[in-house]
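Subject: Interface between my chains keeps coming out wrong

I've been trying for a while to get a sensible model of this assembly. When I model each chain on its own everything looks fine, but I need the whole thing in one frame so I can look at the contacts. Pasting all components below, labels as-is. Any help appreciated, I'm running out of ideas.
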Amino acid sequence: MSGVTRRQFIKIGAATAGAVAVGSGLTTRWWGLDGDPVANPGTDGDRVVPTFCELCFWKCGVLAHVKDGRVTKITGNPAHPLSRGRLCPRGTGGTGLLYDPDRLKRPMLRRDKRGEQVFEEVSWEEALDFTAQRLLNLKDRYGPESLALYSHGYGGSWFKHLLKAYGSKNIAAPSYAQCRGPREVGFQLTYGSTLGSPEVLDLENSRVITLIGSHLGENMHNTQVQEFATAIDRGATLIVVDPRFSTAAGKAKYWLPIKPGTDLALLLAWMHVIIAEGLYDKEYVDTYAIGFDELKEHVRDKTPEWAWTQTTIAPETIVETARVIAGGRPASLVHPGRHVVWYGDDTQRSRAVAILNALLGSYARRGGIFVPSQMALPAYPYTAYQGHPKAPPDRPKDQGYPLADEVLASGLCMASIPGTASYDIKGWLVYGTNLLMALPQPERTKEAIQALDFIAVVDVLPAEIVGWADVVLPEATYLERCDDIDNPPWKVPFAAVRQEVVPPMYDSKPGWWIAREIALRLGLSDYFPWKDSMEYAMQRVHAAGYDCDVLRTTGVVVGKARPTTIEDGLVPKFATPSGKIELFSQRLKDAGFDPIPQFTPPDEPPAGHFRLLFGRAPTHTFGRTTNNRFLSEVYSQNELWLNAQMAAELGLKDGETVVAVNQDGVRSQPIRLKSTQRIRTDCVFMVHGFGHDAKGLRFARNRGADDSRLVTRIKTDPIMGGTGMSVNFVRVEKA
Amino acid sequence: MSRNKRYAMVVDTRLCVACKACVLACKGENAVPDGYSRDWLVEEVRGWFPHLSAENRSERCNHCAKPPCVAACPTGASHVEDGGAVLVTHDKCTGCKACIASCPYDSRYPHPDGYVDKCTFCLHRVHAGRLPACVEVCPTFCLHFGDLNDPESEVSRLLRGRKSKVLHPETGCEPNVFFLT
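Reply #2:
Try treating it as a single job with all components included. I did that and got this:
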């Protein structure tokens, strides 16, 4: 479509410049208008570069189409086991991140108080020298353990390595204690293994899928949604337990609008029915599990009638769904969820999910939980880390979440408030995580930051946390950099490469370069012996015996499938103390916890208040994508879901602007009300990730409301320190 | 090239999760300008708590067999292309918007470059043996495209085997986008 269109021609004519246009050969075009009705937009580009996505953390293989040096579109890589040629909206909209005009463009040093968002652009040399000097000071004054790294995203690996070389083990991600941690501990205790990410769920072969608060479809992990849809297409029965009529509930045969906070009661009642009616997989339980007799005794009085009083789910519904769940076994999967930090009893609830799956015999079974295989990829032969760093101060001094198996991001934040932990954290390195939205109680996070000696932020966009940094180090986006090889445990072993599609824009730099430059200034050059990340990645690929050129051309190498289920010939092994599935957990008992989950009723909302629930929209990953123009165009702001009857009683109308005020008087930003039949009368819901106030986020700023500032209270999981966040109550007022 | 074909799209509403990957893929594929889209999602929820049902539909131009937009077009820019796809020849379009007014499905928009734009069934891809971008990207496999004149095509088989509907059949436009319910 070079040249002048007819529309423009008319405009030009009106501007009395027609003679020029006619003279330029437009006349022939005028009479040849029927030429090409099927116009090719030409977005396939002149070259295609395979890499993997970073719009969320599923890491789907993508193909970036490049034309004249510009990425025109992103499509799924058909060869990649996680995308299978298809993508979610976020991955498809990845160019909106690359070409976001609000990106961090140059290194910056803070020139006012922390949080005032006043910075001066400086050279990389100055920013890196400053950072290195501060890190050396920290080490001299407080020891290397005083530095903490918060990291989310695949490029964080370079900084984790940097921190270990520096001498600190204080590496945490909110994806543990603020997300899937309780689930991992619950499954570890039961099966001796975690579910990981991507979760090792064989959804596509499930005959019955039970979702508990997990809103697949709104939570848009690509492979999982693909398999979910495939299962539905194959006629799987869907049971959805959710206070809200989610997208998934709209596809369910049974929607159980449970009272929030009572899922564990329902799970125990389901076990009661399945055991009392002899519907469990007796042979499987006899072969692989211990503690059945104790479990049977434990759930004897957890009748559907008892659960009804807690959950508001009718006893006959509980019985009927229990029979449906058992009827589908072993291809009956009770989905373990992902973000499970809700009420503080989350490890026990996850344990109950794990135990119920064991009764169904769905672990290591087709259509259940599979046992993954992973492509062997030797670690880079680094120099061993020196010294003996102190254990992280992320647990309270007196009582310490004994079964946490990762560092708690919330705990490191607490330890930054002087005198609260075994030793103080004095410096933060923040990579790719907006802690002011990712951690609960943002006012406490700000208090912790104010007490620090030093805080550096590495990020792509000027999220809220950037405004609190002493030094801002602008990273290149995932399309502009090479990171480590990705080889997660999955149905088939595979290894995928992230490579530079286009050179970094502005003065941004890849994370590996930033980490390496800091290391060189800290005298840690021995730990970064490679010249760039591609050399590093290809060394690993080469050492594993794969062809580097093939990997870079195809984006992924897929190994030979191994048995992942008993049906395939797998002999399951359980890395628990007993070597069996532990329905009864001696480890929990020894640590002073219930060896089989016990239900504790949740707090009731104060009069006139609703429990605040939050979740996801398919187009967004937390607050990371809300400034992406493409994604924001189709989902620009969140809404507050309120039951229509409640809205009418409050005199509130659908679509009007309201404010949520929590039990501590904290007010949300103005948010549009969604008065709906799709939610219970005792709770409200909003999508997380909106309500940004960072000055630099021009598209996302002041759109919708931020749930995390309403999370002034938490209930901490006593087993592993997860921060239960669905324990806040709000009233709803006209704005 | 394919005068005896009848292109159609079949949308399985049971599978669709209204994620809008189709919208973004179309925008990328066809360089649709900011603020516009050729396809969109409708989430229809019926009933009262707790007796609710939902239907998700990925919608676009219906490429009607009797397209009112073609009849309304004064310049012949809107026309029926091979396979029955309704297209707009950009160079012939004056941007008068008569077609926009005539479309019962509101599936057209005025492109900032001065012509009216809409879904093309990605004929530029179809002619190269590929599927429309929205069909290719869909993570729930809810979109299907093919030739209804071929009884063995996937779309023909789906429409034979499942209950389906079209939108606003009362208009008599004979849409070629079908929804499995």
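Reply #3:
Confirming on my end. Chain B has one domain: 7-180.
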